[in-house]
Write a structure and sequence with these properties.
Elements: E1 6-10, E2 14-19, H1 38-45, E3 52-53, E4 62-68, H2 71-82, E5 87-95, E6 101-105, E7 108-109, E8 124-125, E9 128-139, E10 149-158, H3 165-172, H4 186-196, E11 203-211, E12 218-222, H5 227-232
Parallel strand pairs: 4-11
Antiparallel strand pairs: 1-2, 2-4, 3-4, 5-10, 5-11, 6-9, 7-8, 9-10, 11-12
Domain Pseudouridine synthase RsuA/RluA-like: 14-172
Pfam families: PseudoU_synth_2 (PF00849)
Keywords: Isomerase, tRNA processing
Length: 245
């Protein structure tokens, strides 16, 4: 089987890849029957040797995913993540016109992966996301109660790493991400799925900036969104607006 991961960067300590939407990073209680994981494909790219995921991407999210090639490097990267020294950048298409920029400072309750724990009280943790609007569009289609429908392309920068943070934060400010089955708007999701022939989550991890844990050099790892994501961005070109990527 063809390896679905694309190598972005590799050295003696790190392996960065582009993960496609729909692929789990590793085995999870959410889907016990899944047999394919980014972790196993990354191991193939590492000559069959073990790799250590240092962060995660949700299954429907595509983009930059970083692995350490040894335990000590994984430990150092984990400490850098906890200290807020790794900057992550995402692109998302959301419902409505967002403000030009803003900060979402809204604590989130933990979401356990194990369904058996979902009825129990979970801790609430601080969560902070910065966003910047890159483009807007207004389509001549009536999806809710208005004759037209508005959307924004936004750049999202999470400063904490809570589960589903970006999806939950965009829902909190009433600009849910298109294609989000759990936190989005069903009518808008269906419109995009029918128009573009796919129902993917319109969220992509496009950049990861960090200090190399061994050499100390500044690393800027980036990847373009998948072709299906880019095709959806056509809606922002119909009005003649330039996308500020």
């Amino acid at each position: 089987m063809l390896n679905p991961l694309t190598v972005i960067y590799r050295d003696s300590w790190l392996l960065a890849v582009h993960k496609p939407a729909g692929l789990l990073v590793h085995r999870s209680p959410i889907d016990k029957h899944e047999t394919e994981f980014a972790l196993q494909y990354a191991r193939e790219l590492n000559g069959g040797e073990h790799v250590y995921p240092v962060h995660r991407l949700d299954r429907p999210t595509s983009g930059v995913l970083l692995f350490a090639r040894d335990q000590e490097t994984a430990r150092r990267l984990g400490m850098a993540l906890m200290a807020g020294e790794v900057a992550k950048t995402y692109l998302a298409v959301v419902r409505g016109w967002t403000p030009e920029d803003g900060v979402i400072d809204y604590p989130l309750r933990d979401e356990p992966e194990d369904r058996r724990l979902k009825g129990r009280e979970q801790p609430v943790r601080e969560a902070l996301t910065r966003y910047r609007r890159l483009a807007t569009t207004e389509l001549p289609v009536a999806i809710e109660r208005y004759p037209t429908s508005r959307y924004s392309l936004v750049e999202l920068t999470p400063e904490t790493g809570r589960k589903h943070q970006l999806r939950r934060h965009m829902k909190h400010i009433n600009h849910p991400i298109i294609g989000d089955a759990n936190h989005g708007r069903g009518r808008h999701n269906r419109y995009f799925a029918e128009r573009f022939g796919q129902g993917r989550l319109m969220l992509a991890a496009t950049a990861l900036n960090l200090t190399h844990p061994v050499t100390g050099e500044l690393l800027s790892l980036s990847a373009e969104p998948e072709p299906g994501f880019i095709r959806v961005l056509e809606i922002f070109c119909e009005t003649g607006e330039e996308i500020g990527l």
